[in-house]
Amino acid sequence: VRQQMRGAGLVSPTQSALPPFRLIRAGSIPDVREALRAHPGATLAAGCSDLVAQVREGLTPHTLISVRRLPELLRAEHTDGELSLGAALTHSEGPAHPAVRQAIPSLAAAWASIATVRIRFRATVGGNLMARRYRYEMGVILGALDARMHFTGPHGDADVAVDEFVRSGAPGTPEAVDRGLLHRLTVETASLRWYSYDRSMRPVTTVAVAVRAPEAGESGGRVIATVGSEYRRPVRLSAVLPGAELTAADVRPVAARLAAGLPDWTGDYAGTADYRRHLVEVLAGRQLTAALGARP
Ligand SMILES: Cc1cc2nc3c(=O)[nH]c(=O)nc-3n(C[C@H](O)[C@H](O)[C@H](O)COP(=O)(O)OP(=O)(O)OC[C@H]3O[C@@H](n4cnc5c(N)ncnc54)[C@H](O)[C@@H]3O)c2cc1C
């Protein structure tokens, strides 16, 4: 199979039939930058749960740089109104981390709810985002929180909002540019009043809702919602809460306004755009009702 791959360009059916590749176990972020500089086109690897699927889709890496054990990528801390998450935290390590549980307990609960037990032990938050698959949920979960992704690479450092990243290009498109190593994610917590994630209607629709303190001139607060689906890129919605003392009757129109902002496309074989609007109105309405008087 290997000779066929090299000679005829056939796609490998499993990872065990890959041609030999160079494996670099990086020990620090500068090691990764150096390895990326020395081996252009190298593939970064964390838990490899998605890379296995990519190999089945035709990926044949010449160099794998493992970042799974970089100490800098395994940290989480909550200081000065900012939660910082290392990109190599797994779906089991992240939600169990005291900093995450203390800063945004509902984020810990949302993160712990995805995938299966076996996958949660190896799959990382960074790999989930960088795989750029619409059916993966961390883009929706972190998008509503206005999380930012911090990269470092041979050409310097960069950062981008999660929401912008997940909507900016499917794998293989020109927008899906290679920014290098994603080393951490940050979430501003000082203005966060409430957060929740509902995946009960997955795969048709998932909804993450964050309520933040009002900006100058507003009274109630700002609502940011991210709506995901298995089939197409997430959609970001926002609305302003009408006043400080809210009741359930006040938040239902806000949920309706959020749902009305959904586009007409769904790319979804299980429901129409109107059905999705209805679902989002119901789910966001429930979440906002729960938010009344509560803390994140
Ligand atoms: C059976 C199964 C069930 C699943 N269920 C769910 C689910 O319910 N919800 C959900 O959201 N997801 C689900 N997933 C997806 C899973 O969460 C992702 O596969 C996982 O998070 C990817 O992380 P990883 O560390 O394994 O990434 P890898 O496979 O190592 O890498 C994935 C991609 O990210 C790149 N990459 C990895 N780390 C970095 C980094 N630090 N910087 C730059 N690039 C990087 C790699 O080059 C690669 O392109 C499921 C997966 C499986 C196999």
Please summarize what this structure is.
By secondary structure, the protein is α+β, with helices and mostly antiparallel strands. Helices cover about 30% and strands about 25% of the residues. The chain is built from 12 helices and 12 strands.
How would you describe what is shown here?
This protein has 296 residues and is of the alpha+beta class. The protein has twelve helices and twelve strands. The strands form three sheets. A five-stranded antiparallel β-sheet has the order 4-5-8-6-7. It has a four-stranded antiparallel β-sheet with strand order 9-10-11-12, with helices on both faces. A hairpin with an 8-residue loop joins strand 10 and strand 11. Helix 11 (248-260) packs antiparallel against helix 12. It is globular. Bound molecules: flavin-adenine dinucleotide (FAD). Residues 43-51, 67, 87, 114-116, 119, 122-124, 126-128, 130-131, 136-138, 181-182 line the site of flavin-adenine dinucleotide.
